[in-house]
Amino acid sequence: MAPLLGDSMLETVGIVALSYIGFKLLWSLLKGIRLYMLSGPLGLSVNIKNLGNWAVVTGSTDGIGKAYAEELAARGLNLVLISRSEDKLKAVAAEIEDKAGVQTKIVVADFSSADIYDNISLQLEGLDIACLVNNVGVGYKFPDFYGNTGAEIDEMMLNVNALSVVKMTRIVLSSMEERKKGVILNISSASGVSPTPLLSLYSASKAFVDYFSRCLAHEYRSKGIIIQSVTPHFVATKLSGIRKANALMPTPTSYVRSALNTVGLADHTFGYYLHALEGWLLDLLPQRLAMSLAMSLLNNVRKAAIKKLQRKKEK
Questions:
Q1: Domain presence at residue 3
Q2: Does residue 2 fall inside a structural domain?
Q3: Domain count, the chain
Q4: 202 is a catalytic site residue
Q5: CA–CA distance, 55 with 78 (Å, rounded to integer)
Q6: Is residue 296 a part of any domain in this protein?
Q7: Does a structural domain hold residue 147?
Q8: pLDDT tens series, the chain, 315 aa
Q9: Which InterPro entries would you find in this protein's record (predicted)?
């Protein structure tokens, strides 16, 4: 009787385990459909225009940052555009004012420096800020071993990718807390969700942004403030080096429209349905295997980049 009882218990445990796994998979699928497929058509996300009159976007002259600025302007928000190039800021501001008919304000700031935030705070004083998009970021010219990247990049990358998020969040948080409303969108990266060798410091800085955002989301939810970590995979931008968009690597505009539809529905979002699928598949793999695959892929990119540099030098 004992062996039969043992077999029966094992069978029950197996059924329960498979049922639990099946339920988790189904729940993930349903959540993904709601977040990435239905949120836009059904209008499930938060209407940011109801939270204030101004949006602030860092790193707003190119790529994802510019796309956020354009889309928020299209939704009726005035814009504070912050970046280091005054000429580019003026051009983007004029373009957005002409197209969307909103007010814009530009702030010239180099986020590689830690001495810019008093001026930014002064420039934002008195504005009814509905949304902050912490987008500014910097990456490597190409994937490489950490020891080859040069010590000079360390402080710069941490200042731009991590410190900027902390400082900008602190600037707007108190007024949002007073008004009991506001949205802070922190643009991290899929490489911040899964450790990515050959992008070590970049990956770590983006992991900081992801964890910082998720912690704050829990702290401030009861105060009416939405804080979201956004972790894109590849998007066709200057930073990624991808010139031609496709279904897996969308344009910044397509990506941002999708990501904004998830605001208020999740503390963390991949922003785009195929990026969410990539993230889900990677999560199924043992972390060491996922890291090995990433390193193999990026090492090929590294070798190709080095060869290209050598050819340029020979010319």
A1: no
A2: no
A3: 1
A4: yes
A5: 6
A6: yes
A7: yes
A8: 455 555 677 777 767 777 766 766 777 778 888 889 889 899 999 999 999 999 999 999 999 999 999 999 999 999 999 999 999 999 999 999 999 999 999 999 999 999 999 999 999 999 999 999 999 999 999 999 999 998 999 999 999 999 999 999 999 999 999 999 999 999 999 999 999 999 999 999 999 999 999 999 999 999 999 999 999 999 998 777 777 888 889 999 999 999 999 999 999 999 999 999 999 889 889 999 999 999 999 999 999 999 999 988 877
A9: NAD(P)-bd_dom_sf, Sc_DH/Rdtase_CS, SDR_fam, VLCFA-Steroid_DH
CATH number of the domain that residue 62 is part of? 3.40.50.720
* Residue listed under structure tokens 């040069």: 150
- Which of 36, 117, 140, 202 is an active site residue? 202
